[in-house]
Amino acid sequence: AQLLLSVLVRRYGSVGQRLVLTQDVTERQRNEAMRRDFVANVSHEIRTPLTVLAGFVETMATLPLGPDDRERMLQLMTQQTRRMQTLVTDLLTLARLEGSPQPAPDDWHPVADLIEQIGVETQGLSRGRHLIRLPETGDADLAGVELAGNLSELLSAMTNLASNAVRYTPDEGRISIGWQLRPGGGAVFEVKDSGIGIARDHLPRLTERFYRIDGSRSRETGGTGLGLSIVKHVVQRHGAELTIDSQIGEGSTFRILFPASRVRVHRAVAEAAQA
Ligand code: ADP
């Protein structure tokens, strides 16, 4: 066996090594291509609003404008400036998520408070255009339940899903935000909408940076194309799992499945709420 092995090593060893090296180079080339794509995407996303802004500044500086035109231009300039601010905020959030250690598992937050805050932000975004359902206060799955992790990360992931539901659901549509304890431990945060839905082909790529199905709809509603990559990072960092179910024209359901280690129930509080 020893002899056979040494013959094989002599005969195929170099091939084997070269294969490993090729994989390494391919991996490096892929990373490099991804980095270049990312820089190109960021530049493009920033250049578009900058070009619009520069055009308006020049117009305002060179043309005599009536008060209505001035007002309209200032509104559009504010819109473009906000767009760049959101983009930079999302980019910084992503960079921080990628560069910092995982959030401590002993930092506990009442789930009822999280849901309430997400509800307020979602209602604000919808401005009464959608029917939004939230868990009842006093719901047994909420009373005394706490979730472990980084508060701003958790809020950012959950509000991103809720804000997408509003942005990709036509007016009068239904959105429901849910929270359930799982029988075997752990819990599920769920956002369900009756919106435009997502074709199956897109699902695997949805959490990639700047991946959008309809770029103009995303931008018109204030999207940066980074929301779901932020969600993906937060979910991974909390040992959770993201699932997406969707039907074109019927709607989508996004779920975050939290492991048992990150969910705890204060029995006394839960029992008092039920009494
Ligand atoms: P964006 O800022 O473009 O919304 P996201 O990363 O949050 O970026 O989402 C990526 C893409 O996934 C969106 O552009 C949209 O096409 C699709 N998407 C996300 N959420 C939903 C949803 N609830 N319903 C339909 N499409 C969605």
TrEMBL record:
EC class: transferase
UniProt-recorded name of the protein: Phosphate regulon sensor protein PhoR
EC number: 2.7.13.3
Domain of life: Bacteria
Organism taxonomic ancestry: Bacteria, Pseudomonadati, Pseudomonadota, Betaproteobacteria, Burkholderiales
Role of this protein: Member of the two-component regulatory system PhoR/PhoB involved in the phosphate regulon genes expression. PhoR may function as a membrane-associated protein kinase that phosphorylates PhoB in response to environmental signals.
Residue numbers of the full-length protein present here: 177 to 451 of 456
Residue ranges of every copy of the Histidine kinase domain listed in the record: 41-262
Molecular function, one GO term: phosphorelay sensor kinase activity
Reaction catalysed by this enzyme: ATP + protein L-histidine = ADP + protein N-phospho-L-histidine
UniProt subcellular location: Cell membrane
GO biological process entries: cellular response to phosphate starvation; phosphate ion transport; regulation of DNA-templated transcription
Record GO cellular component, one term: plasma membrane
This protein's UniProt keywords: ATP-binding, Cell membrane, Kinase, Membrane, Nucleotide-binding, Phosphate transport, Phosphoprotein, Transferase, Transmembrane, Transmembrane helix, Transport, Two-component regulatory system
